[in-house]
Amino acid sequence: MAGETQPSRNAEGFIFLNAEDAGMASKERKQIEYLEKHLDYRHPQQVLTLYERMLRERIFKTPVGMIYLKHLQDFLLDQENIDPAKVPMIPINAPCITIPKKRERPLRSGVGGGEEERGRKAWLRTSVILNVLLALAVVLMFALALTSNQPNIVNYRTAILNEYASWEQDLQQREQIIRDKERELKIIE
């Protein structure tokens, strides 16, 4: 993609993981410049109030902002009329040392994979074969159920209707035989 430029990850002397963080650092630099223009260092109590508010509201998140907070903290700690115990520490909200998570599977070695890769492929092949066999078994069971003479959950209604129809036909044949015999014997009502 020639001609396209990616947003810079560099800002204020730092290289950030992504352009959004770099943009945030630049915004924090502008906030710091504004504060510096309007902040009166002759009133340390006001500086302390502003410093506490910035910590409470977590105004600064990038190293640029943290450096400024440290600058304000150092200023406040140097003031004779401010009790150092009342100057809060700067909270860091992200770990400084990243401990890698324990890997559940070791990394693949080489291009062709290893024994683990072959085992995984064999397991996948076996799984696919078993799934196909089970699907065929289900289809076969439905075919048997539909073609069977015995009543089952699939064809019970048809089987019961056929049975009653055969009984009715059998009864009609017997009645006909009885009527024929009555005529022969001349027992007619």
Topology of this structure?
Layout: E1 10-11, E2 14-15, H1 19-38, H2 44-56, H3 63-77, H4 115-147, H5 156-184
Antiparallel strand pairs: 1-2
Helix pairs in contact: 1-3, 2-3
> Level of helix content?
55-70%
Helix tally equals: 5
- Runs in which pLDDT lies below 50 for 5 or more consecutive residues are none
Alpha carbon gyration radius? 44 Å
Give an overview of the whole structure:
- The chain is built from five helices and two strands.
- The protein has helices spanning 19-38, 44-56, 63-77, 115-147, 156-184, and strands at residues 10-11, 14-15.
- The mean pLDDT is 84.
- Helices cover 58% and strands 2% of the residues.
- By secondary structure, the chain is mainly alpha-helical.
- 7% of the residues are buried.
- Helix 1 (19-38) packs parallel to helix 3 (63-77) and helix 2 (44-56) packs antiparallel against helix 3.
- It has a two-stranded antiparallel ribbon with strand order 1-2.
- The radius of gyration is 44 Å and the shape is rod-shaped.
- The termini are far apart.
- The longest helix is centred in the C-terminal third of the chain and has 33 residues, at 115-147.
- A hairpin with a 2-residue loop joins strand 1 and strand 2.
